[in-house]
Amino acid sequence: MKAFTYERATTPAEAAAMVARNPGARFIAGGTNLLDLMKLQIETPQHLVDVNHLKLDTIEATPEGGLRIGALVRNTDLAADKRVRKDYGVLSRALLAGASGQLRNKATTAGNLLQRTRCPYFYDTTKPCNKRQPGAGCAAIGGFSRNHAVLGASDQCIATHPSDMAVAMRLLDAKVETVDSSGTTRIIPIADFHRLPGATPEVETALVPGELITGVTLPAPIGGVHSYHKVRDRASYAFALVSVAAVIEPGGRGGRLAFGGLAHKPWRVEAAEASIPNGAKATAAGVLAGARTTPQNAFKLPLVERTLAAVFADAKG
Fold it and tell me: How confident is the prediction for the chain on average, in pLDDT?
């Protein structure tokens, strides 16, 4: 790990200003991803701004009937919140499917949204990676690609997004609140928050430099059977090969679906949800339209259909 300087912010706007006036600076809260990247010298910030004392660690009801989740709410606390468990079960289940208990105790809502890909070539600094070093190339293309994207990938990057929480928030149409160094606030629909790789895979979100996430707002609850199915190599601790967040209406008349492990961002195809009453095969066909596979990750296509079948079966009770 390279040497860095450190300071602690007391307000969100102050934190954003601290990062803005230190090019290459980073915010740090739980640090469960950033510190690993710093140890491997994938991230080498010269300055860290500690945001742990910004009082963004509460969950509050909104006038619209939803919830506002502070950016610093720990994953464990969010998953255990009675309102989340009762009205947003898919979110609680997704959080509990991610990481270990120790990591969830440290990881924050904002940090979870911003965690970077677990592509092994991104972490191996001896291999080319356009996300780590723009223009270097992509060792995953033509390499070991079992865990990689089948949707939304580009000729520059085929990495997947690792967050379980973000998949559930995409399903729920959450909105991300931010503040910049001038104190200006912004609300970003989560559908627009994470980016596909295109020609600039190093740009992963809609945030501008120095912009700080202050919270996430959930709309009013939606009725139905909430579930989160995650298929992974190890039940104890692994990132998703395929995950499905779902809220299915009674009788399987309709619902919402979002997917993890398939793309560079949480994946949702609203048009495909009209096929839910027709079953898993028809719905999967709509979700996977345009999929591009390698011989190593082609298994993800039938796995999506089978996971959807399990989701629909559970919804019937």
Answer: 97
* Bridge partners, 209 (sequence order): none
What whole-number distance in Å separates Cα of residue 300 and Cα of residue 162? 16
Question: Minimal CA–CA distance to 314: which of 238, 234, 224, 231?
Answer: 224
Instruction: Let me know: does 259 contact 231? Beta carbons within 8 Å.
Output: no
- Residue pair 107/32 in contact (Cβ under 8 Å)? The answer is yes
Q: How does DSSP assign the chain, residue by residue?
A: ----EEEE-SSHHHHHHHHHTSTT-EEESS-TTHHHHHHTTSS--SEEEE-TTSS---EEE-TTSSEEEETT-BHHHHHH-HHHHHH-HHHHHHHHTSS-HHHHHH-BHHHHHHPPP--HHHH-TTS-BTTTSTTS-BTTTTS--TTS-SSS--SS-------SHHHHHHHTT-EEEEE-TTS-EEEEEHHHHB---TT-TT--BSPPTT-EEEEEEE-S---SEEEEEEE-S-SSS---SEEEEEEE-GGGS-EEEEEESSSSS-B--GGGGGGGGG-HHHHHHHHTTT----TTTTTHHHHHHHHHHHHHHHHH-
Q: What CA–CA distance (Å, rounded) separates 143 from 140?
A: 5
CA distance 256 to 263: 18
pLDDT digits (tens, 9 = 90+) for 65-77: 999 999 999 999 9
Other Cβ atoms within 10 Å of 279 Cβ, number: 14
Percent of the chain with pLDDT over 70: 100
pLDDT digits (tens, 9 = 90+) for 141-174: 999 999 999 999 999 999 999 999 999 999 999 9
What is the distance between the alpha carbons of residues 29 and 52, in angstroms, rounded to a whole number? 5
In this predicted model, what pLDDT tens digit does every residue of 261-293 receive, in sequence order?
999 999 999 999 999 999 999 999 999 999 999
Query: In one letter, which amino acid is 295?
Result: P
How confident is the model at residue 293, as a pLDDT? 98
